[in-house]
Here is the input.
Amino acid sequence: MSGGGTLPFQTCGFSIFVFMQKFISSLQNSTVKKLLQLQEKARARKKENAFTVEGVREIGLAITGGYEVKEVYFTSELFPAEKAQNLLSSVSGPVELTELSSEVYEKIAYRGSTEGVIAIVAAKALSLKSLIIENENPLILVAEAPEKPGNIGALLRTADAAAVDAVLIANPRTDIFNPNIIRSSVGCVFTNRIATGSTSEVIAFLKEHKIALFGAALQASVPYHTVDFTGASAIIVGTEATGLSEEWLQNTTQNIIIPMEGEIDSMNVSVAAGILIFEAKRQRLRRDSGFKIQNSKL
Here is the structure.
């Protein structure tokens, strides 16, 4: 291990103080163990109120999204120290920058193809109380009890692509800052406005804001393209295994279905959400272009 110091980076008229820490070459180092715990254990992330982010793009999106980067770890073989100035160019507070040996970095890297840089980032509160809906006519995606990180990541990518006003996770079963969600979302955890709560809390929030609830369900449903999504709307999807809970079914404005014309009777939840969200976007585009929405004639 070698000593460290402070590097002041001058960017856009202000300084970013990056504290160079000791070089870590031992797999038994307590910092290495902390990083592994943050990656693998939701309990550790909750205790530290922090999580790990790997990759230049993902770290950059976290910074742009207003997340506080606390520490950055890199291996100079893949990510030279001077790249930190560009990566941290918009950070105003102090950041600890630590170099790792290639062996140590390989131990903590969780992506198949890595860029040589991992950050510890402070978590944000994702409560409904802190969520502000600025759009008077919002489009919101709600997912009830999603579990698979890959599905959650895909939902967040879809939400980002459609620029929805918020993503609400009802009865969450998986920590949203799970590294597999961050990876599968390609950083869209940081580009979406996300809030979590119980199903009852989410329903109350939507009704308080006078948002229509459109639930993807088989019961009492109509084809999705016959519904008018041009008003304030929430599209609610459940799990592939059980669908939406009874509480949602009793509170939806209208249930909607995607007609299936093949042999199977269901599709991946993120695919279904994408179809529904972009139908809503299409209707809104037609409305804004002066076309009149006429149910099934769309």
